[in-house]
Amino acid sequence: MTARIPLSAPDVSEEEIAAVAAVLRTPHLSMGPELAAFESELAEYHGVEHAVAVSSGTAALHLALLTLGIGEGDEVIVPSFAFVAVAGAVLQVGARPVFAEIDPLTLNLDPAAVERAIGPRTRAILVVHTFGVPAEMDALRELAQRHRLALIEDACEAIGARYDGRKAGSFGDLAVLGFYPNKQMTTGEGGAVLASDPAHAARLRRLRNQGRDPGIDWLDQIEPGYSYRLPEPACALGRVQLRRLDAMLALRKKAAARYDALLEGICGVERPPLVLPRREISWFVYVVRLPEGVSRDMVREQLAGQGIATGRYFAPIHLQPAWRARGGAERLALTESIARRTLALPFFNCITGEQQEEVAEALRSAIQCAA
Ligand SMILES: Cc1ncc(COP(=O)(O)O)c(C=O)c1O
User: Fold this and answer.
1) What global pTM score does this model have?
2) Atom of ligand 1 minimally distant from the CA of 82
């Protein structure tokens, strides 16, 4: 059943519909002018030299790891409080994800925990800017430099966020973006890798297109690669979304502030910080923490009964059946205790004040019942 108030909703305007329709009237449906323009606009937005658009955020992660030469026998430090693709991509290149604890305020990798997780096989830190809050980039960059590790930023949830005034995605050796419809901007499906090194950009472009280099015959191949291209209509959609991105982020920031005021005083509910030092948040989701002892399942059920969708954001990766079955016996006490209490509320560009009031009221009465 579709919820009356969904968890997320894409914001697609007539301008985007017209841009996609215009592409469909041309013979260029893949690898055409929209791709080239989208990539240069993405690079410019982030203040980096290169952007390589691909078919998903997961494809972007896969290619980023391959491009940095990470593979069999290597370890990559990742958060467990994250979307499964983060660890899945590491596994996809034959490396081993090593889960590290998070900072309880920002929910991002805790640099001290990362340092403890570094071992002789560690090759990279894959830092995720969770929920659009930039991670502690100064400390993580210093760690990566000191231990000669690659630093990959996963900015799939954080396009437009800033740390010390610099865009998330402009710090790492490589950074990835994702454009699934629940994201701040969408291309339907899609993603991108940001790079400053032209050799990395060339390798990424080759790998996403079956290992072909520009100008070679379509049936020739330089190295084994993948079919990770982003089609022209998606690029056209992304270009208009990117032009509207800052306005969309402003709407989301306003919606977060409105929830903050509406949820004040609900017994024991912890709201996410609206402001954090050195950071400009790009609001991806609005996640509260329920009081200890309140059944999240009951709260979710009660809201669902009123047509209000919610999410668990995140179920720790190391506790998933797929990962338990791999024999990992990790305990991440902080991640586990936070993840038991998190609840994502409906949150999207066009959410109305009335919808947010209804969500807040429903949450207030559900907590009273579930306590
Ligand atoms: C942090 C993070 N990384 C990677 C992905 C994967 O992106 P996609 O769903 O486009 O493959 C997502 C979400 O969808 C994400 O939130």
Assistant:
1) 0.97
2) 1
Query: Cα torsion for 243, 245, 250, 251, to the nearest 10°?
Result: 100
Q: Give the ligand 1 atom nearest the CA of 182.
A: 14
Q: Among candidates 210, 231, 200, 225, which has minimal Cα distance to 50?
A: 200
58 and 205 belong to one structural domain: yes
At which of 189, 219, 241 does a domain end? 241
Domain of 344, CATH number, reads 3.90.1150.10
Residue 176 alpha carbon to ligand 1 centre in Å:
9
Rounded to the nearest angstrom, the distance between the alpha carbon of 170 and the centre of ligand 1 is 18
- Determine the distance separating the centroid of ligand 1 and the alpha carbon of 154, expressed in angstroms: 8
**20-66 tens-digit pLDDT:** 999 999 999 999 999 999 999 999 999 999 999 999 999 999 999 99
- The length of the chain in residues reads 371
pLDDT, the chain, mean: 96
* Ligand 1 atom closest to the CA of 61, numbered from 1: 4
Are both 263 and 211 inside the same structural domain?
no
Token code pair at residue 324: 């338990």
Whether 237 and 255 share a structural domain: no
Q: Is any atom of ligand 1 closer than 6 Å to the C-beta of 64?
A: no
Domain of residue 357 covers 245-370
Place of tokens 């907590």: 367
